[in-house]
Amino acid sequence: MKFGKEFASQMVQEWQTAYMDYNSLKNILKDIMRFRQRTQTAAPTPAGSSSSSSLKRRVSLYRAFSGLTNRYNNFRNSHHNDTFAAADDDDHVILVNAEEGSGPYQTKFMLSSEEGGQYEAVFFKRLDEEFNKVVKFYKDKVDEVMKDADNLTQQMDALIALRIKVDITPISIELSKVPAPAATGRRPGRMDIIEEVDQMDSEGGMVGKEQKKTNNSSSAGFRRSPIEVLDHVKMNVEAETPVSTMMKLLKSSNSDLNCTKGELRKVEDILRQAFAEFYKQLRLLKNYSFLNQMAFSKIMKKYDKITSRNASKAYLQMVDKSYLGSSDEVSKLIERVESTFIKHFSNGNRRKGMKTLKPQARREKHRTTFVMGLFVGCAIALLLAVIVIIQVKNILNSPGRQIYMDNIFPLYSFFGLIILHMLMYAGNLFFWRRYRVNYSFIFGFKPGTELGYRQVLLLASGLSLVTLAAVISNLEMEIDPRTKNFPGVTELVPLALLLLLLLITFCPFNILYHSSRFFLIKCAFHSFLAPLYKVTLPDFFLADQLTSQVQALRSLQFYICYYMWGDFRRRNSSTCLNHNVFKIFTIIVAVIPYWLRFLQCMRRLVEEKGKAHIFNGLKYFLTIVAITARTGNELKWGNIWLITAWASSIIVTILATYWDIVIDWGLLRIHSKNALLRDKLVIPHKTVYFVAIVLNMILRLAWMQSVMGIYNVPILHRQALIVVVACLEIIRRGIWNFFRLENEHLNNVGKYRAFKSVPLPFYYDQSTKHP
Is residue 359 one of the residues assigned to a domain? Predict the structure, then answer.
């Protein structure tokens, strides 16, 4: 793999604009190479000519005077004014200068008077711009992590003091407040913990400069006990639950530090996660420094090769002595974080601690691809078998066709809708990975547990295989003389399949992607209890998926009705479908996903105070009105429902289409660099975006079929038409998913968000000074 591709593949995508623009610099070198190829027949300047001697004399004017004694060198070093030049006597090419040793760095190309020298001067000018950009970004990020390190230091002070308070008896706490004697005698056994706290700095804890000075100055006299830190600290580690949310509405949260051991464990879990995220940030920053140094080395060596000069030595010497190459704060912090985490969160077990700090990425297994291919092949074979059975037995023209479509088809259509959604999600994962959209970070998946498109295709193909086998068994049992006398048994096949799916989904054992299954369950739980939980992106993203699965939810409603009313014994759902309770719940079930999104918008409005959430909530509220009116129209409740359905559906369709394209996708920007799109795009082909816009508009109109009264199509049964419309909505949602997450990813790129922030459990009282 060429370095350019390897460089792009290892970038932190959220920081990609802060990396050295390797491709643009390489394009300038290509211009230089093309110019040299056009002029390669020109005779070279003889060695020792007047131009060469004048060049040497001109370069000497820029060299620092070494002084008559070494005192001048000391003076120069004290002012950190670094000058680097190509030192080869036969080739004086560049002169690099940096004020105060940290930039801005300026490179003077000494051969600009030569023919074609303007190309090389442009190259070095652009090279300086890129290097100064990289150094500035790196320095800013290092300053940020140093501040975060100070915050984590204070958090550790409070945690250790809290451990002492919770784990040690009150008598020991009082003894801890007594100043330590000057003698070197050993303290009582219980006080070993406090002594360990005092020695934390020398054993790898993260301590800021000011705190080190304080510790050194206090070591000669009395040392403040860590337990007194709690006098200036408040804590809020109460897990967000529906009960805690309601309590916050009634009274302020409790920040008293009289916590139990269970609450102490919560504090430790939060800080463990905070350290893991901080360690990830440090590793990303270290990798950023390494990759950019490698890129500057590669581009300078490429320059030397094309121009046959020797400029890389001086320039890379400057890179090595710059803040990017010489700063060791990040490396030291990495060592201290490892030491602190292993000691305080892993009981000294380095393997366990490093496993948490450096989670292993999921490895693609050949057996996953093999089993997926096997399932896909078997599913295709079963699908062909279903078609053959239907044609051979002439089931579509049999008298029982209408009964089958009204009763059995809705049961199996549920699985078909779920499988289609999984296939669309697998396609999303494939293209997200191809275009380097950091979906794992955006969704907040635990590192090493996120599913790839192969795993999702494996699950989808496995469910397809089982579903088609159930369909065939149901058809065979219906026409088999030995079993058709027991229709009640044949009707239980779809129910058994549904129970199997639910059993696998909620299986508590660590099998079949346990982490991903419970992540899905947690997000669904938070969504269904909106607005009692804080709304995160996975929660409202899942709720949006549910709005496209209204027909699947209605199929679940039909399952309950069909089997609880006992209609499955006679394969006749008329009792269920004609019941008023079922009709009312038909509206309620369809409204539930949109109501959840409305509540989530209201929760975000209260917390974030954004006006956009008002309009988004209004959109979902109008959708609820439209669905209610459409369902009333389908149930023939009167003309008023038809008029309301028409008006509300048109308004919602226009509003939702605008929101999808402009707000969720960020497209149709008038003053964008890319006409009618947005400034940044991850797909190089702009046509794809316009096709997606048109498809979204067309598929948005699919749900209007119920308003327009299109219930019967000559070649399709009414139930089949409903499923086809539901499939079109799922396809639209799959397209929406890709561009919605692409826009979220680009927003993270614009703000350099490459890691999530963990709310820390302790906060210091601003009115008092931290001891």
Answer: no
Residue 20 in any domain: the answer is no
User: Does residue 85 belong to any structural domain of this protein?
Assistant: no
pLDDT value for 396: 76
CA distance 565 to 491: 13
pLDDT of residue 248: 60
Q: How far is CA 445 from CA 76, 94, 338, 441, 607, in A?
A: 52, 49, 23, 6, 24
Residue type at 752 in one-letter notation: Y
Range of the domain at 598: 366-750
Decide: pTM greater than 0.85: no
Distances (CA, A) of 697 to 428, 657, 675, 703, 729: 20, 6, 19, 12, 11
Q: Which of 264, 266, 282 is nearest to 206 (CA)?
A: 282
C-alpha to C-alpha distances, 380 to 240, 377, 383, 462, nearest whole angstrom: 46, 5, 5, 12
Query: E strands of 93-145, at which residues?
Result: 94-98, 105-109
Taking 50 as the threshold, does the pLDDT of residue 180 lie above it?
no
Q: Position of tokens 């916590």?
A: 259
**What are the beta bridge partners of residue 764?**
233
Q: What are 300-326's pLDDT values in tens digits?
A: 999 888 888 888 888 888 888 888 888
Work out how many domains the chain is built from and give that number: 1
> What is the pLDDT, as a whole number, of residue 767?
54
Determine, yes or no, domain membership for 409. yes
Contact by Cβ (8 Å): 19, 291: yes
pLDDT at 499: 95
Q: Which residues make Cβ contacts (< 8 Å) with residue 224, sequence separation at least 6?
A: 218, 771
Residues with Cβ within 8 Å of residue 721, at least 6 apart in sequence = 705, 710, 711, 712, 713
- Sheet of 105-109, strands arranged across: 82-85, 94-98, 105-109
Cα pseudo-dihedral 98, 99, 101, 105, rounded to 10: -30
Tens digits of residue pLDDT in 334-391: 999 999 889 888 888 888 888 888 877 777 778 899 999 999 999 999 999 999 988 8
Token pair of 17 as six digits = 């604009």
Q: What percent of the chain has pLDDT over 70?
A: 77
- Residues 719, 413 contacting (CB under 8 angstroms): yes
| 428 burial level (CB within 10 Å; 0-12, 13-18, 19+) | buried
Q: Using one digit for the tens of pLDDT, what is the confidence trace for 506-519? A: 999 888 899 999 99
Inter-axis angle of helices 687-700 and 639-658, nearest 10: 170
Residue 413: other Cβ atoms inside 10 A: 21
Q: Are 740 and 664 in contact (CB under 8 A)?
A: yes
β-strands 105-109, 233-235 pairing: unpaired
Q: What pLDDT does residue 243 have?
A: 64
Give 464's contacts (C-beta < 8 A, 6+ positions apart): 375, 379, 419
